[in-house]
Design a protein that fits this description.
Layout (H helix, E strand, L loop, with lengths): L4 E2 L2 E2 L15 E8 L2 E7 L13 E5 L2 E6 L12 E7 L4 E7 L13 E5 L2 E6 L6 E7 L4 E7 L10 E8 L2 E6 L12 E7 L4 E7 L10 E8 L2 E6 L12 E7 L4 E7 L10 E8 L2 E6 L12 E7 L4 E7 L10 E8 L2 E6 L12 E7 L4 E7 L5 E8 L6 E4 L2 H6 L11 E8 L1
Antiparallel strand pairs: 1-2, 3-4, 5-6, 6-7, 7-8, 9-10, 10-11, 11-12, 13-14, 14-15, 15-16, 17-18, 18-19, 19-20, 21-22, 22-23, 23-24, 25-26, 26-27, 27-28, 29-30, 29-31
């Protein structure tokens, strides 16, 4: 994490998460008063076709990349795109829209993004077996440098579902990849830049691979350590407890170091739905973990490396945990600061507004320091209107919206559009 840090928030967004942390994209200022963090700017795409803008985000220095995987293109729907923003000292300005040179319908380019310096990698997991694209800034523009293809992946491998980048090394997850045990065992591919091109270095798999493990659902890379999430891994007789695998580069190969599981793993916790590594700390999300309040409250786990073994140190939960909050859907960690996203968190305006929680290590334990929400919290709504009439209504479902329209003589059916109603 670059820059100084004050109580309440850091001077930069925690780097390179596999998913957008709060699911409301905002760049936060470094000003903190009494533990509060101030939203500095809300980023939006310059064009109107950027569907699911903010599904993925990565920040490095004064540059941010934002994925919009269902953006349309001349080839059809959901080709996908990614937007680059650069901070000019006072505001974040859209610099360039990235698209694949061979864009096709339902590629979902932008489902995952990762950025380091002047190099960005963008995943397109539904391009047959999937692919990932590297872009490099040449001083004036972002140029597509290379497309990664899985060397051994099967159809529907979803190669590119997750991506992570550190130095001259990239890791690409393919959770749908098959193996001898069956479908969706999963894999992850390591690529290394040799100065002129990116070369496939190694295919990572779980030593205990099994059908529906979904190994590669999430990936994170820091230096010579890679962590790969497998949300479908079973524990005892229960399915989808989840696991995460640590690999370490020894100078010649990426060696499996340890399989991480939750101390109190349970059915469908989906431990490994997100992963992040920073130095000797690994943070792992379990978005479907249940709590006393209800199902899918979510949690996240801190593991620390003691020189020989990764040990579970703490289980993080939200102080205001709610059912279906999906706390742990996204995670990022840098030094002694961690951020955990909860995309399903409610707010005064309705359901699924989303939030993110900041935790700080005080030397003994990780303590929740701040809850981040968007300044204009929103809920999904439907707005309906009839042609040639001024009457409109708004609700959370099309049927309720339609029924709320004033009774008219006109027999014309109303037009209903799902949108986001801002506070």
């Amino acid at each position: 994490m670059t820059g100084s840090s004050r109580r309440g928030c850091s001077s930069s967004v925690l780097g390179s998460p596999p998913w957008a942390l709060s699911l409301v994209l905002a760049i936060l200022s470094g000003v903190a008063v009494a533990g509060e963090c101030f939203e500095k700017q809300k980023l939006t795409a310059s064009d109107a076709n950027s569907h699911r803008f903010g599904s993925s985000v990565s920040v490095s220095g004064n540059v941010a990349v934002v994925g919009a995987p269902t953006d349309h293109c001349p080839a059809g729907e959901a080709c996908g795109s990614a937007y680059v923003f650069r901070y000019n000292g006072s505001t974040w300005v859209e610099e360039q829209k990235l698209t694949a040179s061979n864009a096709a319908a339902r590629d979902y380019f932008g489902h995952s993004v990762s950025l380091i310096g002047n190099v960005a990698i963008v995943g397109a997991p539904s391009d047959f077996s999937g692919s990932a694209y590297v872009f490099r800034h040449n001083g004036s523009t972002w140029v597509e440098e290379q497309e990664f293809f899985p060397s051994e992946a099967t159809a529907s491998a979803h190669f590119g579902w997750s991506v992570s980048f550190s130095g001259d090394v990239a890791v690409v997850g393919a959770y749908g990849d098959g193996c001898a045990a069956g479908a969706r065992c999963g894999s992850a591919y390591v690529y290394r830049y040799n100065g002129t091109t990116w070369v496939g270095e190694q295919r990572l798999t779980a030593a205990d691979a099994a059908m529906n493990d979904d190994f590669g659902f999430s990936v994170s890379l820091n230096g010579n350590v890679a962590v790969v999430g497998a949300i479908g891994d079973a524990c005892n007789a229960d399915l989808a407890c989840g696991a995460a695998y640590v690999f370490r580069y020894n100078g010649s190969t990426w060696a499996a170091e340890q399989k991480l599981t939750a101390r109190y793993a349970a059915y469908n916790d989906q431990f490994g739905s997100s992963v992040a590594v920073s130095g000797d700390v690994v943070l792992i999300g379990a978005e479907a973990d249940d709590c006393a309040i209800g199902l899918d409250c979510g949690s996240a786990y801190i593991f620390r490396y003691n020189g020989t073994t990764w040990m579970q140190r703490q289980r993080l939960t939200a102080s205001d945990a709610r059912a279906s909050a999906s706390f742990g859907l996204s995670v990022s960690v840098s030094g002694d600061v961690a951020v955990v996203g909860a995309s399903g968190d409610d707010c005064a305006f309705g359901s699924f507004c989303g939030s993110a929680y900041v935790f700080r290590n005080n030397g003994i334990s990780w303590v929740e320091e701040l809850k981040l929400t968007a300044s204009a919290s929103a809920m999904n709504t439907v707005t309906c209107s009839r042609p040639a009439e001024t009457a409109t209504s708004t609700s959370t479902t099309s049927l309720a919206c339609w029924m709320a329209l004033p009774i008219r003589v006109s027999a014309l059916a109303p037009t209903c559009t799902r949108a986001v109603a801002m506070a």
